[in-house]
Amino acid sequence: FSTAIAITEQPVSVSVPVGYSFTLRCRAEGRTSLQYQWFCQHQSVCCQIPGATKQDLPVTAQQTQLYTCRINDLYKNAIFSDWVKVEVHQCVARGLPPQLWRGEPVIVLNPTEQRVEVGKPLQLQCAAMGVPAPSYQWYRNGNLLEHQKKKKLWITHAKVSDSGTYLCCASNNHGEHWTSAVDIHIGETSPPAEHLQLCHLVFPLATGKIALLVGNNCYQHHPNLMAPVTDVFELSLLLEQLGFQVVSLLD
After folding, report:
1. Cβ distance 179 to 168 under 8 Å?
2. Facing residues of 47 across strands?
3. Most distant CA atoms of the chain, gap in Å
4. Are residues 140 and 176 in the same domain?
5. Which of 39, 47, 94, 193 has CA atoms 20 to 30 A from the CA of 209?
C-alpha cells in the first residue's frame, strides 16, 4: 500500500539563472528501508535520471524541466513526490543574481506600459528568480487583485475600469521584490488630449496650406553648415509651386 510510505519533505520548485547549482531534496519514512529514484521531464518527455538514487539530487540548471522522485520500499510499495519545476532563465543581465544571493526574489522581467482597446485582451508579464520559486501577487492602484497570482496577468476582455497603475510582488521565504509600476490605459483608441489640441491648431492652417521653414546656419558649438540657406530657398520655391504660402526663417 502506498500509505506504507509517507513523504516528510517534498522537493520545492526553483527559478534560477542558467548554470546555477543547487540541490533538490526529498525525504520519506516507511516500514522498511527505502529506495529513491529521480525522474525529469522536458517538453512532455519523461525519463529516469541515471544514478539519481539518493534523497538529494544535485542539479546544475541548463534548461527548464520538471522533476519528481519515486520512493519504494522492500514490499514493492511505491509513492511519487510532487512534481516540481526548475525554471531556468537563459538571458539574465550581468550582475544578477547578486554574488551573495541566498535565493531571495530578484526581478528579471518587468511589465511594460500598454494601451488597449475596450473588449480586447490585456496581458501583463513579469518574472523573478528565487529559491524556492517566488509566488506572485498583482496590484492595481495599490489594491490587491484577488485572482491575479501568476507571472502573467491576463484579462480576457478589458474594461475602462481596468485602467490604472499595475505592479507585481514576487515573494518567497527569503523576502519579497516588487516590479516597476506601469500605467495601463484602456479605451483610449484616440490620441491623448494634448495631441488633439495640437491637431486643432495645425489642421486649420493645413487647410490654408501654410508652410513654415526654418533654416539654422549659426551654431554656438558647431561649425557653420553649408546649405541651410540654399535648402530653404529651394524648398520655398517647390512648396509655392504646390500652392503653399511659405514662411521662411533663418537662424
Report:
1. yes
2. 40
3. 99
4. yes
5. 193
Backbone angles phi, psi at 176, to 5 degrees: -140, 160
Q: Could you tell me if residue 236 is inside a domain? A: yes
CA dihedral 62→68→70→71, nearest 10 degrees, is 100
CA dist., res. 46 & res. 65, Å (int): 10
| Distance (Å, whole) CA 116 – CA 100 | 41
pLDDT digits (tens, 9 = 90+) for 119-133: 999 999 999 999 999
Q: Which amino acid is at 207?
A: T
157 DSSP 8-state letter? S
CB contact at 8 A, 215 and 248 = yes
Q: Give CA–CA dist 74/85, Å, rounded.
A: 29
Q: Is the peptide bond before 191 cis (omega within 30 degrees of 0)?
A: no
Residue range 230-242, pLDDT digits in tens: 665 666 677 767 7
**pLDDT of 51 higher than 50:** yes
| Domain shared by 113 and 175, yes or no | yes
Evaluate whether residue 126 is within a structural domain.
yes
- Residue 57 phi/psi, 5-degree rounding, is -115, 110
Q: Which three cell numbers stand for residue 130?
A: 528565487
CA distance 120 to 158: 6
Residue 194 lies in a domain: no
Domain of residue 170 covers 106-187
